Amino acid sequence: QVQLVESGGGLVQPGGSLKLSCAASGNIFTINTMGWYRQAPGKERELVAHISVGIRGGGSNYADSVKVRFTISRDNDKKTVYLQMNSLKPEDTAVYYCKAVNYADYVLAWGQGTQVTVSS
After folding, report:
1. Distances (CA, A) of 6 to 14, 28, 42, 55
2. Residue 36's closest CA among 80, 91, 87, 89?
3. What Å distances lie between residue 2 and 9, 25, 54, 113, CA to CA?
4. 3-class secondary structure for the chain?
5. Cβ atoms 78, 19 nearer than 8 A
6. Cβ burial, residue 13 (10 Å; 0-12/13-18/19+)
7. Residue 118 neighbours by CB distance under 10 Å
8. Ranked by mean pLDDT, which of 53-62, 77-86, 93-102 comes out on top?
9. Of the residues 24, 83, 96, 105, which has the fewest C-beta atoms closer than 10 A?
10. How far apart are CA 94 and CA 26, in angstroms?
């Protein structure tokens, strides 16, 4: 079993920055990739970014709407991933969820979600 605990959400003005954290525990060696998704009211959940944390390697990728502004990263122990969000826009307002996926592309866990609100 894998558990994900998120933190770092909050209220920020347009142009500001936030950094989200997602800590994994349990059977962490089963995790191949971890990623961030977001869901705004009335919209479907969408990919923000994901990163490889398993033995297969690989890099990271981003949704076009956040590329350049956001950066996904991981600790050296690969138990924690981060999402550095810069130049935030009101359209970035959403609940952000962390996700862990195994080597067979099955979802191991979702985080509880953390609210990010960008407003003046």
Report:
1. 22, 16, 23, 24
2. 80
3. 22, 6, 14, 16
4. CEEEEEECCEEECCCCCEEEEEEEEECHHHEEEEEEEEECCCCCCEEEEEEECCCCCCCEEECCCCECCEEEEECCCCCEEEEEECCCCHHHCEEEEEEEEECCCCEEEECCCEEEEECC
5. no
6. exposed
7. 19
8. 93-102
9. 105
10. 27
Amino acid code (one letter) for 58: G
52-73: pLDDT as tens digits: 999 888 899 999 999 999 999 9
Residue type, 56: R
Q: Which amino acid is at 78?
A: K
* Residue type, position 60, single letter: S
Tokens of 118: 């960008």
